[in-house]
Structure formats: C-alpha cells, structure tokens
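Q: What changes when zinc ion is included in the input?
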Amino acid sequence: MARRSARLLMAALLAAIPLPALADAAPQIALTFDDIPAHSLLPPGETRVAVIDRIIAELKAARAPAFGFANAGKGEPGELDAVLARWSEAGLPFGNHGYNHLNLDAVGEPTFVAEIDRNDAELAPRGMKRWFRYPFLAEGKNPAVRDAVRKALADRHYHIAGVSLSFDDWAWNEPYSRCATQGNQSAIADLETRYLDAARADAEAARAASKARFGRDVPYVLLLHIGAFDARMLPRLLDLYRGMGFQFITLEQAQRDKFYAATDPREPGPTPALLRTTPLPPKPGAEVCSR
Ligand SMILES: [Zn+2]
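A: The predicted holo structure follows.
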C-alpha cells in the first residue's frame, strides 16, 4: 500500500512539473539550381560565366551544398562547357534537366525520353550524376504518360529530384533585366524586397503544412535557377534561411527521408509536390519596368 502511495505521489509530482519543451530539430534545406548553363535574360554587361561564378562563391561562403540541373541544348556556343566546368571544379554535382527543356505535357513521352537520352549522351561524359529534374516540374498529367516516363527513368537508373519548396524565383529574372537596362534602381530595390518576402512566405507556409501533415519538418528541397537576379540575391537569400534556423544539406541527404520515397522511379508516382497550400504574394510580371 505504501509503495502504491509513493508511486501515485511520484506520478502526481511528475504531472505537475512542466517538462521542458523538446527542442525542435533545426529544419533542413537542400538547394538545387535548374537551367545550367542559361536561365532567362541577362542584364547589360552580365555573362553566364559571371552569374555562375557569383553563385558558386556565395555557396562556398555559406558552406552550402547545391545540386545543378543542366540542359545541354541551351545557351550560346561554348557556354555549356564554360559554365559546367566552373560548377564541377567547385565540387558541385549536376544532373539531367532535358536537352532542350521541353514540357512533357506538350511533347509526349517518345520525344521527352529522346530528350533525356540526348542530354545524357552530352552530359554523362562531363560527369553528370544520374538525377533527373522534370522541366516545368511537369511529370505528365496523363497517368499512363507519367508511368511510361518513370519506367524509362528507372530503366536508365535515374533518381528523380523532388521539389518541396519553390517561390517562383525564376519570375524575377526578366523584370530585373528590364529594370537594369533602364537603370531603374528603385524598381530593382522593390524586386529585391518582393523576392525575399516570397521566399520567406513560401518557407513559412511549407513548414506549417509539413507540421500539420507529418508533425515534423520534412527535409526541404528548394528549387532555384541559374539566373542573374538569383545570383544577385543569393547572399541575402541564404542569410534569410539561416535566420529562420535552416541548416543546408545535400539533395541526396534530403531525399533519404521517406517523404521522398516516390522519387525512386520504380515506385508509383507522382513525386511529392510543393508542401505549401496557400498562395504566395503575386510575383512580378510584365508590368515591372515595362516602359
Ligand atoms: Zn528548368
């Protein structure tokens, strides 16, 4: 009886003592950069090589790993080799993003798979990893088409690169080029603010959705592009994520999480989509520096 009382007393005491909240593990993020060697318009005086050099320098300064995705059919003559050489010499891996960045839903499976193979033939000798990122994230609206392409990827021993974070960073590059051509510094400052606001809103919404669905932060995979405005903003963008507590990890590390199980093309698709369920602030369009 005494022992039972002691046990009850202990239980009552434990219930009364608030346990310290378990510290949440730091959220993790893997950076990916699509459209090597050439994404969107360049502002005057800018080059593809200068863009990649700035991105590489910022990644190194932040000790942030990154994975690139290349289109061998894009860019001016010589740009692919120049840009890829720099990326590879920095120790950064790259994968297949289709030879000409075609949309599966527009061209159909045979053309799309031929694009994968054509890109593979160009890039494998340059050290490509067997990872594939769908252009426009279009995996095939028709399930039969989607499954056929997944089978083709599995037969070729590809992993599929997922995307769980994206704030449509690509949409800033063309307006930036126009504003820079005009020398419109206040419009550029406005673009900078909007870019960071969108990145923050996306990350906050994705974290909230992940916690609601899974009770935790899944490791996030962020989609970015090799654009001049992305290069300009990267130091501030990486600071923003660090300030939110994110740790930078590799794509391979992120996709080991079971959330990404369907990035194995032998599994039934589709791959996991964006986590956020709320819309982002409007992205800049043709109205910016349209004069
Ligand atoms: Zn792309």
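Observations recorded in class: DSSP finds ten helices and seven strands in the chain.
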